[in-house]
Amino acid sequence: MSKPFFTVYCLIIYAFLLTPIAVVVIASFNAGAFLTFPPQGLSFRWYVVFFNNEVFMRAIRTSLWIAAVTMVISGIIGTTAAIFYVQYSGRLKEAVRIAMLAPLLLPEVLTAIALLFFVYSIGIGTQTMFGMIIGHVLITLPFVFINVSASMESYDPSWSMAAQSLGAGRFTRFRRIMLPLIKPGVIGGCLFAFIISFDIFTISFMLKNVGTSTLPIQLFDYLRTNFTPEAAAVSTCSIVLTLIVVVISEKMLGLRLHRF
Amino acid sequence: MNVAAKKRFGPLLLIAPAAILIGVFLVLPYLNIVVMSFRMPGQGTPYGPGFTLVNYGKFFSDIFYIQQVANTLWIGFVTTLACLILGYPVAWQLARGNSAFRAMGYGLVLSPLLVGIVIRSYGWTILLGNNGLINRTLMGWGIIDGPLPLMYNALGIVIALVHVFLPFMILPIMSAIQGIDPSLEAAARSLGASKATAFRRITLPLSLPGIQAGSILVFVLSLSAYVTPSLIGGLRVKTMAVTVVDALIDTFQWPFGSALALMLSVTGAIVVVVFGRLTVMKWKA
To answer: I want to staple B173 with a disulfide (CB 3.0 to 4.6 A). Which of A71, A110, B164, B210 is the partner?
Structure first.
């Protein structure tokens, strides 16, 4: 393949990847009552409609709340697991890794179904948020694990030993030596868990209790029956929210998020 | 606890929460699906007492479900192939292209992953619908008279799935190509191989592990996708995952839904294993 042709080919693929997202953002500024292209003038009217729509606002609050809880639980469990994996797992290293990545490798829809049956058969059901949060923690756990273990790989255990020889206890060693050094991985993993949790659909869809709805679920329900640009305004706000988290982590904190 | 025991079991406390979470809320639920698929269909309850094979009988006796599994496998296959053809050159460029382009390209490939799947599928409904951007534009230019059927069919599902899963094909191939020593290609070239021959005989075979990983990932993700087929396919074209979820949510047929989910998983797993075997053979040959 000649070089210019090759470059153009790649640019077309990049355009293909971005087009559907760009189209949603552009559609959200449509002044008309329906999704039409080109937009009938620019306006923020659908943002006003969206901000006054209590159903969507409640869904956003629920999503943010679930994402925050998920981030904290997943962050703690994933970090301790990553420390074990890098420092103590020994011969079990490969087994631990596969187990920790399993939620990522298994189809989400199957995990969702399996969890739904399970919470019912142990009598918890979906009256509380318990099942949904467990599902979110499962799905986000691998991302915390990957990020923390990546930053653990450059941690030298002899630093802990040096601290120990100077009289530092187990917890002090963790707090004063290890944690500051692996902090980028922990924060990166947590922020990533937050973003992923905010976007999870299938798990939430299967495990939600009647009356609660996360933003992706509300959007999905809305799209099944409505075609106004309000959904585009909702989507754009959700994209911007994710973007803010990514920009904060990558530009301000100088983190590199490990996605895989 | 004495000091030796503390040293031995202390670290296990680090992994304990994750082990309990995955053991209790991932492994047990998956085993539970298998049990559920043998339960009696319930009357007014999700499932009845006792065990039976009737759910599997219902699957194998109804051509509708078998056809649907076949359709889903076909959609998965076409999606995977399209992702491979579209993604390979991009992966190559990300691994070997000039660096300015590389950083931007990497960001562009990863960024769609940060946008929720509902939103990305929604973008495709805006593009592909009868009144969508593509049909409107083509009709406006006078190229077509009526709208092309792009949505509510397998074609639309494949287009959107390719978009959603393309990064999962590009990234493994990219890292496989990055792992190939560029001097191997240079050596082939110095021995008189043309650019195309060097690619075909050196780079392509050495990147097979990446192709294999990416293909399996995309195939499995396509089979189990729910949101995209549900929004793009509407009520007209249903993939197996959509049928399963609807059977569980709308009609509460838990045992039958489990049997359907397992049949799809088993057929998917068989395809993946056969594909894995074939590519490993090819790779060793």
So the answer is: B210
Residues A92 and A182 in one domain: yes
A127 to chain B nearest CA, in Å? 15
One digit per residue, pLDDT tens: chain B, 285 residues? 456 666 667 788 889 999 999 999 999 999 999 999 998 887 777 788 888 888 899 889 988 888 889 999 999 999 999 999 999 999 998 888 777 778 788 888 888 888 999 999 999 998 998 888 888 888 888 888 888 888 889 999 999 999 999 999 999 999 899 888 888 888 888 888 888 888 888 888 888 989 998 999 999 999 989 999 999 988 788 889 998 888 888 777 889 889 989 998 898 889 888 888 887 666 555
Say yes or no: A12 contacts chain B, CB-CB below 8 A.
no
Give A162-169's long-range contacts (Cβ < 8 A, gap of 24+): none
A88-97 LR contacts (CB < 8 Å, sep 24+):
A88/B11, A88/B14, A88/B15, A89/B15, A96/B15
Q: Which residue of B has its CA nearest to A218?
A: B118
Q: Does the N-terminal peptide bond of residue A20 adopt cis geometry, omega within 30 degrees of 0?
A: no
Q: Which of residues 120-139 of A touch B (CB under 8 A)?
A: 120-121, 134, 137-138
A73 belongs to a structural domain? yes
Residue found by looking up tokens 């009598």 in the block: A123
Tally of structural domains, chain B: 1
0.80 exceeded by pTM: yes
Nearest CB neighbour to B224, from listed A9, A109, A239: A109
List b or e across A105-138, with b for residues whose CB sees 16 or more CB atoms inside 10 angstroms.
ebbbbbbbbbbbbbbbbeeeebeebebbbbbbbb
Number of domains chain A contains: 2
Contact A202 B226 (CB under 8 A): yes
Domain of residue B199 covers 54-284
Is there a single domain that holds both residue A127 and residue A177?
yes
Q: Which of B25, B32, B118 is closest, CB to CB, to A216?
A: B118
Task: For residue B8, give the chain A residue with the closest CA.
Answer: A88
